[in-house]
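task queued by scheduler; priority normal; single chain, no ligands, no partner chains; default sampling; output format set to structure tokens
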Amino acid sequence: MNKKKYKKLMSILLITGMSLSMCGCGSNVDEVHSEGMKKVGSLYVEEEAEYTDDSEKEEVLDSFSSADGLCVIDKYPTYYDVTLDYEKGEPDAVGKAYAEAIIEAVPDYAENFEPYLHENIRQAFGGREVNNEALEKRIRTLIDSLPGEYKLEVESFAKTISQGEEGYAEDGKISYIEALTMQIIPDALRPTACSALSLGGEKTVSGERISIRNLEWNAGSENQFAELHAVTHMKKGDRSLTSISILGLLDMITAVNDDGVMIAILDVGSKYGMPFIYEGKKCYTFEIRYALENFDNAKDAGEYLVGESGDFTWCNNLLCTDAKDAFCCENATSEVQASGNAKSVLRTTDSELMEGLQWDTPDALCIVNTFATQGNQDTFTSLEFNITRFVKYNKWVSEKDKFSVADAKGLMAREVVDQYGVSNVHNSGTVHTVIVDYATGKIHVSFTKEETAEDIPRFIEIGEY
């Protein structure tokens, strides 16, 4: 097996290990255990990364606009910068304009995205034969659950981008149902692994918060994700927001609104497994969008999302921060709550953690792919990847008195990525890392462009929130 195929295989295995089963959530235990974990070396990078608090800005290579001006796509060397203008057009018009601009700006968009979508579908079904009829019913039911303006926008986008194509068929074209499916991958199929860290003012040089999110996702067998990185500005006056995601997606993976409320998704999944239920449910990625558009602080946004969590399709964690506060929405579905296996909680830096779980920095919040509050479902014990990353974050944050933005970048450049003996924080599955500096309002992003993330990631400033 050649090196490229080996790295891709190991990356997929890492991600698949986090996608436990197609179910709601699981059981809790009283204490975190780490028996059976193999002690291995740290495999740190040989030379310390040299960062500054500033990040470079890229120059625009080309610019495209829909005929009505509701969508403008600027092509940069590393990513696409999209502006959607809801102040001058209704949601359905914006959705149509977005699709039209993509068709013009990226003529091979369907050839890249459509096989990537089918890879996500096959992965979600875990090797079982995909029942397209049942999948389509699931997708249409969840799309129908969207708030009216989002549904109009998504359906208009799908109708335009599909150009008359129908049904699931891996043919390099995006059909209408495929275009709907791509908008709700985390809700209908599930995402993969992630981590997040928010450092409060007592832990930063500036005295203002710094929040970090590291996204690990299936990048595609041909690294399609890397070809379609996008920063999408949804222009809605005092309801505006910036989303860091994939070109063409209208849901939220990592996003921050113009009040500085940052929300990012992290999968949790099930320990023992419960039936996946989508009827009567809603899409949490669009509930996040609603929260970002309607709340100007993290506490209200977090409380809203925890309150809605019973209606979500999956258990998940959400990083939810602003300049003042940092929270983790530990979201359990209603079925899981009723079973007593987990509960929905807005975790803070003051929340009591599971017995056996140690966090030594009072003014910092760490999140991985498991709940962490006392009495909630424990997937630290069953997944070494979770406890290893949590322990590493705890150690690294404790080692330094105060962090600058440069230091925050350095947290993602401590370990060699291209190795598989150690569970890394910044690893082969990383597709983007986002740092929000609340002292300046600047958003710094590292986009993975190669087969796997680089040991020393390159950060770009994409603007201010």
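post-processing summary
- Residues 1-23 have pLDDT under 50 and may be disordered.
- The CA atoms of residues 436 and 443 lie 5 Å apart.
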